[in-house]
Every structure is written in structure tokens, then in C-alpha cells.
Amino acid sequence: MDERGLGLGGQREELQAEAGLVNATVVLRWDGAPQDVDKEVVILDTDPSPDAFAGFDAYDDRSLIENTCNREAKESWWLERHPKRSEAGVRVHAYFVFTCMALVTALRLHQQAAEAAEQRGEETGIGRFRRQLEARSRDKVIVFCGAHFGIFRNHEVFLLLGIPVRERALLGESAQTVLARLRAKVPDTS
After folding, report:
1. What is the DSSP secondary structure assignment for residue 18, as one 8-state letter?
2. Distance (Å, whole) CA 126 – CA 83
3. Distance between CA atoms of residues 127 and 179, nearest Å
4. pTM of the model
5. For 119-135, what is each residue's pLDDT tens digit?
6. CB-based contacts of 30: which residues, under 8 Å, 6+ apart?
7. Distance between the two ends of the chain, CA-based, in angstroms?
8. Where are the beta strands (DSSP E) in 11-73?
9. 148 - beta bridge partners?
10. CB neighbour burial string for 115-138, b if at least 16 within 10 angstroms, e if fewer
11. Residue 140 belongs to what H/E stretch?
12. Would you give the distance in Å from CA 77 to the centre of its chain?
């Protein structure tokens, strides 16, 4: 709702609220140490309990949100202000920040799991990927011809150059079978 009393749809909304008592708890000592007069904590609540500590104890849950979530967002994520000072802007910003925080948490958990797997002697991460890529590419070469290039297996290059490869010849492979597999035009030798 904006300052004119209009909701998100631009229609006037009637507020249905009942008046209630507001309790104020002034904390003069925190963990046994006296507070400075300028830095005294005042907790406002609507708890009907006559016990002053009821509001203070209920503040513990709120302080977790304020001190862990909001402070983490401001200090660790360098958030100074919301990008747009409207309900929708704050919502979008909060969703974005919490999504980023969840992604970073997931990344950190993944890194911890990878480190634990490495300590157990398992292969993980980029090193494993590079070893797998090297194993897949071990017998391949790139052949350049002007502006064109091709990636071939070592034995294919030899066969195309007319050099016999005994193991491949036993399997029935020749320059013509390589060219046919690559869907290349077979040069006319006549």
C-alpha cells in the first residue's frame, strides 16, 4: 500500500485493524553489563503478558532474523539499499538476494563434498574432467589444409596418407572406408 492508501492494483483498501496496547521494554543491562544511555535497547511489542521478559524473549527469534539474515545480506553481500522503494521492488530484491545466498550455500556444500571425496582418494572436479578429456582425445590429431581443418584419429590420417596400419587392415579398414565414414567424396583415380 502506498502513502495515498492505494494497494498494488490502484484500488483503495480499507484497513481493518484493532487498537491494542503497546508494551515497551527498556534494557538497562545486557548480559550483566550496563548499557550506555545513548545505546539502550528498547523493545516494543503487543504481547499481552505482564511479564517484561516475554517481549524480550520473543525478540530473540526476531533478532536471529535481523542479525543473521539482514546483517549477512548487508555485510557479506554489500547491499546498501533496495533498488526500488516499493513493495514490489523490495520483494524482488529480497527474492534475488536469498536466491543468490542459497546458490552460494549450495556451492559451498558441493565444495565441501568434493574435498571430502578427494580426501577419501576419489577423483573429483576439473582434474577428473581433464583426465577424462585427455583419455577421449589421446589418439586424435587436428589436420589443417588452408582454411579448413579436420579432427581425425591417428590411424585414419595414416590410412588417408596411404600408409598401411596393420591392426586396422586386419579389421578391413582402408582409406576408402575412412572417407565413406566421413561422408567425403572419394577422389576419382581414373
Report:
1. -
2. 37
3. 35
4. 0.33
5. 888 877 777 788 888 88
6. 41
7. 87
8. 23-27, 29-30, 33-34, 41-45
9. 145
10. eeeeeeeeebeeeeeeeeeeeeee
11. strand 140-145
12. 14
